Amino acid sequence: MTxxxxxxxSVIGAAMTTAVLPSVASAETSLRMAxxxxxxxxxIHEQLSGGILQLSHMTFDPLVRWNKDLSFEPRLAxxxxxxxxxxxxxxxRDDVEFHSGNAFSAxxxxxxxxRLKRSPDFKAxxxxxxxxTAIDDTTVEFKTTKPYPLLLNLAxxxxxxxxxxxxxxxxxxxxxxxxxxxxxxxxxxxLSGTGxxxxxxxxxxxxxxxxxFDDYWDEESPGNVDEIxxxxxxxxxxxVAALLSxxxxxxxxVPPNDLERVREDDSVQLVTMSGTRIILFHMNQERVxxxxxxxxxxxxxxxxxxxxxADRLMKGFATPAAQFSPEGYAGHVESLExxxxxxxxxxLMAEAGFEDGFEITMMAPNNRYVNDAKIAQAxxxxxxxxxxxxxxxxxxxxxxxxxxxxxxxxxxxxGWHADTEDSANFHEYLTACPDADSGAGQYNAGNYCNPELxxxxxxxxxxxxxxxxxxxxxQVEQALYDDAAFVPLHWQDLAWASASNVDIEPVLNVMNxxxxxDLVITDE
Length: 524
Fold this sequence. Notes:
Oligomer: single chain
Number of strands: 19
Number of helices: 14
Structural class: alpha+beta
Helix content: 10-25%
Strand content: 15-25%
Radius of gyration: 23 Å
């Protein structure tokens, strides 16, 4: 089979059990992997999520990508120059082809950024970019509306798409570049990237298969995996059992309850890292009038025992949080600590006139974050101690995000990793005043709004003095804490495991975007 011309194979085969995976045929080196869920779409601009970004690194290449030390590594961009305060010029590789056989050029970068700027999920972080211009085939120029200190950070999320492949209309007359949230579109089921792998088969929720792209540009990559089959296994115990029995070669995540079990098995290896993904609950002020009172929101924050959740449910595999920013981020405030105090929570509820409590609905996923459903159950039980009756519903990730977008519950869980590895990103998406036109507050299911904080973040994003910028972002974190804008739970640690001959450690990172194109499998 010539992979250069391979796009998306027809969906074939009957449904199979998720516990045991079939061997991959006719491949020199193959990887059988199991994640807790599969990507919701093949359109990498449909949803800003970990699953989509993992897919992006398998099937596309970014302009630049993060190293383990959070420095920038050239990929499709070979170099860059800051021409002036608002202009950056990038030089691009001239030896890259898309899976379709089309040649990659600067025009594809322009087309991709323009599409990102109209994606509901991405347009907020790309709002600072005023224009992108192709100077010639291998030179592209970015202009920002004002000085912007995070342009290279944004470039890690520009995975140039095949503009010729995605142009025109499909057989139904719909634009091929249409972005359809949680629906069907040409881009959600067809893919042509520059990355190391081509999608050859996809059965949503059952199996997705990849084969290495024959004409992949990165000839220096050590990667030697010819074929990958990824099967979603949502049940933690089943996923771990599949690895320990040899039915799969690589799993993520490893649940806290099974860390020791995996660590003690000589046939597999465990890799863990401190995480930067915050797990939190929003309190919807438009659905529940009581949430408009800061005392009620503060009461909820005091009622929830983050340290207990981290210790008992997460088995210590999490860091209790009182703010968005983990240690090491510019906005991190060292003095902010979790504030569990049940008596204080009851006092605040009484002062707000809700001593007898009230009823709310709560929703959380049950296969997206580590122990997400159990965490939601624990939070609901803790709120019962301040007379809040919780009607909890948990859903699989594939169904949950549509409900989240529609804000269907009074409290909703979300986890967030700052896409720019910067504190401002948390506020821009999770607590900024919601604005559909700009994309601000895209995931602000609490409908919290503080225009002064939005202004402060906007000013920080123009500040090139990094020390001053950090002070501004710390002010934002302190204000969100004082206002109890949301209920932070913990930063989720990361854990992966593989067969002993699968060298996963070099391709893993704190962003949880494994660079599987560089994965090496050795002979046993």
